[in-house]
Specification:
With about 80 residues, this protein is mostly helical. The protein has one domain: Orthogonal Bundle (434 Repressor (Amino-terminal Domain)), CATH 1.10.260.40. The protein contains 4 helices and 2 strands; from the N terminus they run ααααββ. Helix 2 crosses helix 4. The longest helix is centred in the middle third of the chain and has 13 residues. The model has no long low-confidence stretch (mean pLDDT about 95).
Length: about 80
């Protein structure tokens, strides 16, 4: 499952706002704000829509491993 920090990093990498992500994922911008601020959880289906929208725009989500925490990168 992707983290709030990964969503913020992904948006920064793409140069998009919460509003733009909300439009692309069909999720309310208030829901994204709340999740990114660690002020609430998110249903799995909603998080899946956000992840799919970001992946469609070229984001690859990286899991935490022995060398560091979770992150993101752009597809080559």
């Amino acid at each position: 499952m992707i983290s709030p920090a990964q969503i913020r990093m992904a948006r920064a990498a793409l140069g998009i706002s919460v509003r733009e992500l909300a439009e692309r994922s069909q999720v309310a911008d208030s829901t994204i704000h709340r999740f990114e601020s660690n002020k609430g959880g998110m249903q799995t289906g909603t998080l899946d829509r956000i992840q799919a929208a970001l992946e469609n725009d070229g984001i690859v989500f990286l899991a935490a491993d022995a060398t560091g925490g979770p992150g993101v990168r752009l597809k080559a």
